[in-house]
Amino acid sequence: TDLQRLCVHESIGNKIPKEGFVEAFDELSIPVELVGDDESYDESDAVASFKPRPEFLDAGWVHVIRAGYDAFDTDEYETTGTPLTNSTGIHGTTVGEIAVGYMLSLARMLHVYRDHQNDSDWYEPEYQRPFTVEDERLCVIGLGTLGQGIATRADALGMDVVGVRRSQESVPGVSEVYHPDDLHDAIADARFVAVAVPHTPSTEGMISTDELATMRDDAYLVNVARGPIVDQDALVDALDAGTIAGAGLDVFETEPLPEESPLWDFEEVIISPHRGSATNRYHLDIAELVAENVRRYQDGESLKNRVA
Ligand code: NAD
Asked: Measuring CA to CA, which of 137, 169, 185, 282 is 20 to 30 A from 212?
């Protein structure tokens, strides 16, 4: 069956402007409709959504506008044979810049100066505290789109970049690749550890008490992937005890991060509200990917980024 329409589920409003996204498809070969939870689907419908809904399984194809599709049950899609695609491949620059931004700030202390600026306070730090990221070691865990986006930018700043990935293939800008079984060796000497893996059963809690203890006590953790990959209680304990120096965090076990979370109060923790991918043209990047897959679907080609 050919596709007859593209249904844009209103949950995309969580990340991108609904009208702007629909308008981005003005040259698409099929009509685009904004739909809510009262819609039903058949084989001739494509769906683009942020959140999963059971009725999407009746559609001809479903696209998750996010890179992380952990909220979708891929087994259900395998069972019904409904193709599921995601938006990996477009976040290397956006999330890469955020991760490098945290590292530069944590090293050069921009976050601390800004805090003091709020009180019109001319704050002069302890001589020993600031450092340059140049020549410091960064370990990037997961070398897909995000990981490579971080690694190439860090390499350009003169950092010593190592990484963790399951295949031993070399990656541009990464001087040494460790196997996930050797995670502790990979992170032990790093000044920065950046998490860039998907949230799966094997990555959940990957950074916990042991890993935080293995890290240097002057090391910083960067998490731009998914909250549950880092054991958040263990992280708070490590920050409290000073077994690591600080963190840059875009993602959390519970989002929005609850007001009572102790993470808000650490001077050396930078928190961003899961907007690592946010730019004023994010909706266009996603639309381009979806339009490419509409074309492929209609031409009987295999879909890009198929995850089930
Ligand atoms: P990707 O598929 O391009 O890369 C993920 C990489 O991790 C792959 O190379 C994969 O082989 C590797 N990997 C998986 N399990 C691993 C393990 N146990 N050990 C080592 N490597 C492992 O995906 P991506 O676009 O780079 O995104 C990665 C994740 O980051 C997403 O799943 C999503 O959860 C998150 N993300 C967050 C934001 C944000 O706004 N903060 C934006 C995009 C993606």
From this structure: 169
Cα 252 to ligand 1 centroid, rounded to whole Å: 15
Whether the predicted pLDDT of 168 surpasses 90: no
Q: Report CA torsion sign: 204, 209, 211, 212.
A: positive
274 is annotated as an active-site residue: yes
Give the Å distance between the CA of 216 and the centre of ligand 1.
Answer: 24
pLDDT digits (tens, 9 = 90+) for 258-302: 999 999 999 999 999 999 999 999 999 999 999 999 999 999 999
Measured between alpha carbons, how far is 245 from 241 in angstroms, rounded to an integer? Answer: 9
* Predicted local confidence at residue 1, as pLDDT: 86
Å from CA of 212 to ligand 1 middle: 20
ipTM of the complex: 0.99
Pairing mode, strands 84-85 and 137-141:
unpaired
Expressed in percent and rounded to 5, the helix, strand and coil fractions of the chain are: 35, 15, 50
Question: In one letter, which amino acid is 299?
Answer: D
Predicted TM-score (pTM) above 0.95: yes
Question: Exactly one of 134, 255, 267, 301 is catalytic; which is it?
Answer: 255
* Helix (H) or strand (E) segment spanning residue 272: none
By C-alpha distance, which of 68, 86, 94 is closest to 226?
68
